[in-house]
Specification:
Blueprint: H1 15-20, H2 38-56, H3 61-76, H4 81-100, H5 116-127, H6 141-145, H7 150-162, E1 165-171, E2 187-188, H8 190-193, H9 202-211, E3 215-218, H10 226-232, H11 235-243, E4 249-257, H12 259-268
Helix pairs in contact: 2-3, 2-4, 3-4
């Protein structure tokens, strides 16, 4: 025969009902059962909301009262605690945005980027101005500086300070000996005269400078023929001329800055 405790209250109380009367742990999502006293539930949620307002916002008592009122009304209406706290949190965030001057509501879409035709029309509009600055730098100069190597800058400085440099283009019917290559710009002394750190890369340097429109090959020779004699006396050129026979053509040309390259060097490199 089972013996009951006289202080246990209702003899038929189940374990789940007894557990529901135990105080909930702080921070537990199940702070109050949905079927509990709504006033007691409201009081517990108000305490959480007031604590959050006190810690997160210091811009006025009105915000705390508004959030607390939202929590109380929602709790008395029998709404789930999670839904009530979510609404209170959104209201709290809106108040914070207003206090910081952040616009609330749906953000406006960013303006669309202008089309190429619109950009071209803007250029033509600006070209009609009479107050343009003649010393205004070309907008491509900044990008071009990032596409240059230090050796290439040395070549530009040499061409700016010393003028066009001689170049020989040797055309022969026989193939050149092994190890000898003829670049797009022929044979020059630019690697030596410009004191390049990597003289063997002078052909790629000149190709890149030509691609950027900074240098050009002039088909006419320089006025001083002595400068070509110095180039012809180089061992590499002499060997090629000695190995070639009839039909060999030597073209005397020069490499110099374009007008665009001259302006680029004057504005971007310390040459003055």
């Amino acid at each position: 025969m089972a013996v009951t405790d006289p202080d246990s209250g209702d003899r038929g109380e189940s374990g789940g009902e007894a557990a529901s009367r135990l105080p909930a742990r702080r921070g537990d999502a199940r702070v109050l059962p949905l079927g509990g006293n709504p006033v007691r539930a409201a009081a517990g949620i108000v305490q959480v909301a007031a604590s959050a307002v006190t810690e997160a916002a210091g811009w006025g008592v009105d915000t705390a009262l508004e959030v607390t009122g939202t929590v109380v009304r929602g709790s008395l209406a029998g709404r789930p605690p999670r839904e009530v706290l979510s609404e209170a949190g959104e209201q709290l965030r809106d108040s914070l945005r207003k206090a910081l001057g952040v616009p609330t509501g749906v953000p406006r879409a960013l303006p669309e980027a202008p089309t190429l035709r619109q950009q071209g029309a803007e250029l033509l509009r600006l070209s009609a101005r009479v107050d343009t600055d003649p010393d205004e730098e070309h907008p491509a100069y900044g990008r071009m500086l990032t596409e240059l190597l230090p050796d290439e800058a040395r070549v530009l400085r040499l061409l700016y300070l010393d003028g066009a440099q001689p170049a020989l283009d040797i055309r022969t019917r026989r193939p050149l000996r092994s190890g000898v290559t003829r670049g797009e710009f022929g044979f020059t002394l630019l690697a030596v005269d410009a004191a390049l750190a990597q003289p063997e890369r002078v052909d790629p340097y000149l190709t890149n400078l030509g691609r950027l429109g900074l240098i050009t090959v002039v088909p006419d020779p320089l006025d001083n023929p002595v400068r070509y004699q110095l180039l012809e006396s180089q061992p590499e050129v002499r060997k090629i001329l000695q190995q070639t026979g009839f039909g060999t053509k030597v073209r005397y040309r020069s490499i110099g800055l374009t007008k665009f390259g001259t302006d680029f060097v004057r504005r971007c490199l310390p040459v003055l």
